[in-house]
Design goal:
EC number: 2.7.7.7
CATH class of the largest domain: Alpha Beta
Binding site for Mg(2+): 8, 102
Site (Substrate discrimination): 13
Radius of gyration: 23 Å
CATH architecture of the largest domain: 2-Layer Sandwich
Largest sheet: 5 strands, mixed
Active site: 103
Organism: Shiella aurantiaca
Length: 387
């Protein structure tokens, strides 16, 4: 029988800030762009009571919550804490999936001792994580990713909950449809307009109706999750997974403007791939091969990211630390590794509403017409010089 454990760090960004500065406890916190044109990346429960939500323009959030304290956020610090928790978990389980910067999944199928002793074992793990990092975590254990994730949400704050695989439909029935992971605000409103508020109502709707209203893929997925069905496997985290691209020029060159345009184009395409596949990278590598075939690489660990401007700054810095202006360059490469699943929310620390909208629009065009359909002016015209 499939048994899946879900682990979530409670209010992660907020918890880290309050761990670092105890005076932040109990006051409304807004993490995100500090200017009036910024965007809210995360907010405390105290701020939510004023109506503040993630991805909201900061100027709107400050108007709703004038007493809120705005913090820029520190992705390097958050990434470090996430790795610390991963290190603790690795001592208790043979493998885990790092689903995002603050979420983990563990496949416990066949591990009857873990399931039978979940109360004591889960408590021990939570206490160990808190002792090592100061951060509270919550856990949900059930038959699959969807149900265990919902169970985790019901166990917060700092709790754990086991849902018997034979009782998943009953557990889900009384909950709001908001608890289904793929039900966003727009989908929620559509379902509410159909008179569906609780999952029990969703369980009774035919999949054909949901597919006709929400689209075939989303409609069927939501119907399955309402029934407690989710076949998504737990994919063990691997530091080796990466996205990369390399180019060999038709002619060796020392034209720094052309070389910068090349790495810009490569970075833009890889960053789009990250966002399109909902991945974040925490390690950037740049490679240069000169005309004499001498090859050099350099890498840098960063806070989890997928924003082009963030990654391009790192790529350029690594490139210029390797680049020798006196030698012709034959080949360059860029690689993003140490990937985890995640969304764009964490980049809102430094982004404006306009930049977020720009990325969304460019990504939509690239999804429709190809990964290099649109990009920066600097990267245009590079292709014809590549073998």
């Amino acid at each position: 029988m499939l048994i899946t454990l879900h682990i979530d760090i409670d209010s992660f960004f907020i918890a880290v800030e309050r761990l670092e500065i105890s005076d932040f406890k109990g006051i409304p916190l807004l993490i995100g762009g500090i200017s009036s044109r910024g965007v809210v990346a995360s907010c405390s429960y105290e701020a939510r009571a004023y109506g503040v939500r993630s991805a909201m323009p900061m100027r709107v959030a400050k108007r709703l919550c004038p007493v809120g304290l705005v913090i820029r956020g520190d992705m390097d610090r958050y990434t470090n804490y996430s790795r610390m928790i991963g290190d603790v978990l690795s001592e208790y389980v043979p493998a885990f999936e790092r689903a995002s910067i603050d979420e983990f999944y563990v496949d416990l199928s066949g591990a009857s001792d873990y399931v039978r002793n979940f109360g004591a074992w889960g408590t021990e793990v939570r206490k160990r994580v808190y002792r090592e990092t100061g951060l509270p975590i919550s856990m949900g254990l059930s038959s699959n990713k969807t149900v265990s994730k919902i169970a985790t949400g019901q166990s917060k704050p700092s709790g754990q909950l086991f849902i018997n695989p034979n009782s998943t439909k009953e557990f889900l029935a009384s909950l709001s449809i908001k608890h289904i992971p793929s039900v966003g605000s727009q989908t929620y409103q559509t379902l509410r307009n159909m008179g569906i508020e609780e999952i029990r109502s969703l369980q009774q709707v035919s999949p054909d109706l949901l597919m006709s209203v929400l689209g075939k893929k989303l409609g069927y997925s939501i119907w399955q999750k309402a029934q407690g069905i989710d076949y998504s496997p737990v994919v063990p985290y691997s530091e080796q997974k990466s996205f990369s691209t390399e180019v060999t020029f038709t002619e060796d060159t020392i034209d720094v403007h052309f070389l910068e345009a090349s790495i810009t184009s490569m970075t833009e395409q890889l960053a789009f791939k990250l966002r399109n596949e909902q991945q974040l990278t925490s390690c950037v590598t740049v490679k240069i091969r000169y005309s004499d075939y001498q090859t050099y690489t350099k890498q840098r660990h960063i806070g989890y990211a997928s924003a082009t401007h963030t990654l391009l700054a790192v790529v350029k810095a690594l490139f210029y630390s390797l680049y020798d202006r006196r030698v012709l360059v034959r080949h360059v490469g860029v690689k993003f590794s140490h990937l985890v699943h995640g969304n764009y929310q964490i980049h809102l620390f430094e982004d404006t509403v306009e930049r977020v909208s720009l990325y969304q629009s460019m990504d939509a065009i690239n999804r429709k017409y190809g990964a290099d359909a649109i990009g920066s002016a600097k990267a245009l015209g590079v292709k014809r010089y590549i073998k």
